[in-house]
Amino acid sequence: MKIENFPKDIQPFIIPKLKGELFYQCLGCDATYPIDKLLYVCPKCGQVLLIHNRKFDELKKVSGKTWQQIFDYRRMLNIPALKGIYRYHEFIGPNIPLDSIIYLGEGHTPIVEANNRLQSKVGVKFYYKNDGQNPSASFKDRGMASALSYIKYLIDSKLVSNIIAICASTGDTSASAALYASYLTPDIKSAVLLPYKKVTPQQLSQPLGSGAMVFEIPGVFDDCMKIVEKLSEEYPVALLNSKNAWRILGQESYSYEISQDFEYELKNIVVVVPIGNAGNISAVMNGFLKFYEAGIIDSLPKIIGVQSEHADPVFQYYLEPNSEKRVFKPVTVKPSVAQAAMIGNPVSMPRVIAIANSYNKISGRQNVFFTQVTEQEIMDWSLEANRNGHIACTQGGESLAGLVKAVKQKIVTDQDIAIVDATAHAIKFSGFQDQYFQKTIDKDYEIEPNQSLINTPLLVMPDDPNKIPAQGKPLSSNDFKIFAKDISCKIAAELDLIKNS
Length: 501
What we know:
With 501 residues, the chain is an alpha/beta fold.
């Protein structure tokens, strides 16, 4: 739709103006830094950063209702830079020119209501937000679109050149980083570090296909992350893990989309997300807070973070009810089918603590909760979801298992409506489904396949094994008629079909 066809009072707002004044702020010592260079931790105290806008109060001069109209009308634009997460430009990157924005089709993933059968099993009305339908098949593309648009802005402004982008990953981050970096070839080259033999073949193929240099390292993700941090401290590389505060900005779009898709009415809404490196839950909370502060939404939804008992440092931290007595302790992770969440020392933990405190305070009650689930629950609920029309990865199964637990604990009631996060596409983790069905899943996962959920192919052979069609060796017309009749009768018997009268 062309801008001249929009209402005249909305037209001046449709194309964003560069009015932001962003800066880094340390969550440890409150020091602030300009954004004209790549920065990941505070140079003074080493703590992680958040990005703030000094001119955020100017956004409040526009009414919440007007902002709703701006975003709703932008939905009809055909300008690539505003089709993805930057539909919410003023809240994500108000200093980024439109010609520096990278758009590969990320964002605005579908929210799909669960069918009646699955909602009945779970005990509450809920939707899946299928972030596996992003370009690299995971939610990581939201953060990468932001981080790489910022880097492109620095390149366009002649502030940096010859960038080497690097990240540690359990799979999805590397796929996304490599994809977005490849779009900016030759200005950016990418390198990724993966824990050896702890990434699915599907995920490993993605950064390789995008041309990244892939390094496999002994150990787990946390070990890879320490090496990447060491590299970013001592060498001029662009760190693309969620330690990068620009990643958090992009992932806030998840909250903005939910707000828009539910007509900005979030009373009784519950958002359930898995926790890995803790960047996503930090971003989700922060996004809702910004929209609330700007008057775009009038209530903050309930947030539930979910962790497997095999990797649960955030859950363990919040087991202590007295906030003054809480002490964060990294955990040694055990194997998890929710591989993307298998992180024992999340770098965004300080963000979770700071933002959750603000979220609960502004809500006027506890509004952020954490649940722990078993590996058995993760796998079983992932399969249940996909048997009922979804494409949920194992992290999506983790989220659904967390919702089920929250319903049992009465954190969620039948008056609530839940949005469950499927962070990646199911096909990325199909290897675990195969192992489950074949009953070959390693005992360290502590999963016992449920026969009712197992589904394997049936090989149907004709009575005459010598009369079988093969590539390049078709049967004669008469022999194929016999073959087809034989096979169709056997399939009909398996399906309990009755012949037409």
